Amino acid sequence: MAMPTILSATSIIESKIPQLKTFSKELKTRGIKPKLKVLLIGNNPASEIYVKNKQKRCHELDIDFELVKLSSTVNENEVLKLIEDSNQDPKITGFFIQFPVPNHLKHLNFTQLINPEKDVDGFHFQNIKGIYNGKNEGLAPCTPTGIINLFKHYQINIEGKHIAIIGRSLIVGKPLALMLTNHNATVTLCHSKTNNIASITKAADIIIVAIGSANFLSKDHLSDDKKQIIIDVGMNKLNDQLVGDVNFSEVEKHVKAITPVPGGVGPLTVLSLMENILIAAEKQGKQV
Ligand code: NAP
């Protein structure tokens, strides 16, 4: 049986990093100095790792990086003040809060509190508007952009294709559905209340899973007649290992192509973040 193409991030990173380095250097020659500030609240071990990965990439691309760590019991007003100060600080060109936040802060609408010009995560409604109206004017959310870049890199034509997405979060599923629609795919967006998900995934050309449930997608979700492409967004800890939402070892033999976890969508999300940081800095035109 033919083995599937493994849609690894490695070759994308190899081609994209030099481009981003050139972009970063070019900004510097124009007197523009990108600076990312990250707010990390509490001590979630996964968040610590994600922030470290982002810091490493910033360093590689000569982007200034500032991490503010706050205790999990921090007072709400202190957080709001810090956000406001970062919104106002002209040296900060990109800013985000690493999710998840502690329960006592969950009621705060963090994504809408950040200055949209500095919103390098691309979650502010002012940025989402560009996806909604198909004009791509704002900073686009990083994971969906990473997935679109993956399709481009591996020359996977999505026009006219039926793509089933499982998961309708504001950071992955919903914006991704709009972005793929803008690229002329036909999208079915599934969620926890969808009846008979397998009947939808079986009919799709491409299946994207973003639900946060280890090994959820099995052979039973796949088509019996055609080989499909599987994109696994999930990042779950299982027996101390990072695993996706797709049961990789079970489905790999039956699909045309599949992303690995780790080494698939995760690093592409970080690359999109780096690109957004450079774009945001350029738009703000901050001088050294
Ligand atoms: P989220 O906000 O928790 O949303 C989960 C979505 O999945 C919801 O829409 C939920 O449906 C749906 N869902 C949950 N269980 C389901 C089931 N059994 N069947 C069908 N739908 C189900 O999740 P998220 O923030 O989008 O993250 C999803 C996963 O992606 C997590 O593992 C996360 O760590 C990972 N992630 C990875 C990256 C990356 O860079 N690779 C980036 C972001 C997130 P309802 O809306 O009906 O509740």
Describe this structure in words.
The strands form three sheets. The chain has a six-stranded parallel sheet with strand order 1-11-8-7-5-6, sandwiched between helices. It has a three-stranded parallel sheet with strand order 3-2-4, sandwiched between helices. The chain has a two-stranded antiparallel sheet with strand order 9-10. Helix 2 links the parallel strand 2 and strand 3 (64-70). With 288 residues, it is an alpha/beta fold. The chain is globular and about 55 Å long. The model has no long low-confidence stretch (mean pLDDT 96). 40% of the residues lie in helices and 16% in strands. The protein has two domains: 30-114, Leucine Dehydrogenase, chain A, domain 1 (Rossmann fold, 3-Layer(aba) Sandwich); 141-266, 3-Layer(aba) Sandwich (Rossmann fold), CATH 3.40.50. Bound molecules: NADP nicotinamide-adenine-dinucleotide phosphate (NAP).
Brief characterization of the structure:
About 40% of the residues lie in helices and about 15% in strands. The protein is α/β, with parallel strands linked by helices and about 290 residues long. It has two domains: about 30-115, Leucine Dehydrogenase, chain A, domain 1 (Rossmann fold, 3-Layer(aba) Sandwich), CATH 3.40.50; about 140-265, Rossmann fold (3-Layer(aba) Sandwich).
